[in-house]
Specification:
- With 343 residues, this protein is an alpha/beta fold.
- 46% of the residues lie in helices and 16% in strands.
- One of its GO terms (molecular function) is DNA binding.
- InterPro entries: HTH_LacI, LacI/GalR-like_sensor, Lambda_DNA-bd_dom_sf, Peripla_BP_I.
């Protein structure tokens, strides 16, 4: 197999009968050329399949049209659905995305910031479970516009798009109580998600207190992640330790909730007949799993869309109305929670 040499800007110029600088002007729309010449160059580009060198183009326009996106775990459904929103809006504004994965490791976050700087990105969107001040400082010192997407809304002076953890956890707990559930277990994510866990725990406690239900720390489980495996293992541990099974289990993510449901079934409990289960986020899997999952809906696509729009505004020097944006939630009722009052 013979590998053909890639088409260059010189080839396009020769075929179109114009100078290289004229081709460059057409590609970058930097200086006016006649409509006839412009069309001839565009036709040759189409015929030859020429793809402009992005680095060379950025040297001319002083713009890379690249936005860096740093994620804690690219396979996590929370991140994946946010990325859909980022990609959709970036396409609308003719920006490309450079993706960097960190596995929630601080050193990887710092390394990827420098990597994206070297790639001449015009802005950075950083999805993270918790916000580290050193990372914030490095981004600020880089001079590159940055927006954080975090499950927490820490009091740090940054551009941030976040979700409502305290009120969402309180509202879901209240919903379960209203359905006649008194003994409600809570699955939390600890470690790097300490503030997130604190906000949701306080929301849970507040709903219990308002409904005169005593807080029971023995049915609050702290896990190391928001995965199916974490939910499965924690539920097996919870149910093996409890003298009385909980009426409901409120999980920190939909993946955890599905792990909870499978653990319940494997231990001989039916969902929702024996134990109701509620999740958090409303990812696509929540709608197709059986039983379909009752959960806290968060507008993940919109979170990504808002964040990338903020970055593009910053890159273009446009005014940002709100530095911190918190998007609304709602309770989505499906099949995994039963009304115990009607049993």
């Amino acid at each position: 197999m013979v590998t053909k040499k890639p088409i260059t800007i010189k080839d396009v110029a020769r075929e179109a009968g114009v100078s290289i600088s004229t081709v460059s002007r057409v590609i970058n729309d930097s200086k006016p050329v006649t409509n006839e010449v412009k069309q001839r160059v565009l036709d040759i580009i189409k015929e030859t399949g020429y793809v402009p060198n992005p680095l060379a183009r950025s040297l001319v326009t002083k713009k890379s049209q690249l936005i860096g996106v740093i994620v804690p775990e690219v396979t996590d459904t929370f991140s994946a659905e946010i990325l859909n929103g980022i990609e959709e809006i970036s396409k609308m504004y003719d920006y490309d995305i450079l993706l960097a994965n960190t596995y929630s490791e601080k050193e990887a976050e710092l390394k990827n910031i420098n990597l994206l700087r070297a790639k001449q990105v015009e802005g950075i969107v950083m999805i993270c479970w918790d916000i580290d001040q050193e990372v914030v400082n490095v981004l600020e010192n880089s001079g590159i516009p940055a927006v954080f997407i975090s499950k927490t809304s820490r009091d740090i002076d940054i551009y941030n798009v976040s979700t409502q953890n305290y009120p969402a956890a309180k509202e879901m707990t209240k919903y379960l109580i209203d359905k006649g559930h008194k003994k409600i277990a809570l699955m939390l994510t600890g470690n790097e998600n300490a503030e997130l866990a604190d906000e949701r725990l306080e929301g849970y406690k507040s709903a219990l207190k308002e409904n005169k239900i005593k807080f029971d720390s023995s049915i609050v489980k702290t896990m190391s992640g928001t995965t199916y495996e974490a939910g499965y293992a924690s539920t097996k541990e919870l149910l093996s330790e409890s003298k009385e099974i909980p009426h409901a289990i409120f999980a920190s993510s939909d993946e955890v909730a599905i792990g909870v449901i499978n653990a319940c079934f494997d231990l001989g409990y039916k969902v929702p007949e024996d134990i109701s289960v509620a999740g958090f986020n409303d990812v696509k899997l929540a709608k197709i799993y059986r039983p379909k999952l009752t959960t806290v809906y968060q507008p993940l696509f919109d979170i990504g869309a808002v964040a990338i729009r903020m970055i593009i505004k910053m890159v273009k020097g446009e005014e940002i109305e709100d530095k911190k944006v918190t998007l609304p939630f709602k309770i989505v009722e499906r099949e995994s929670v039963i009304d115990r009052k009607t049993k």
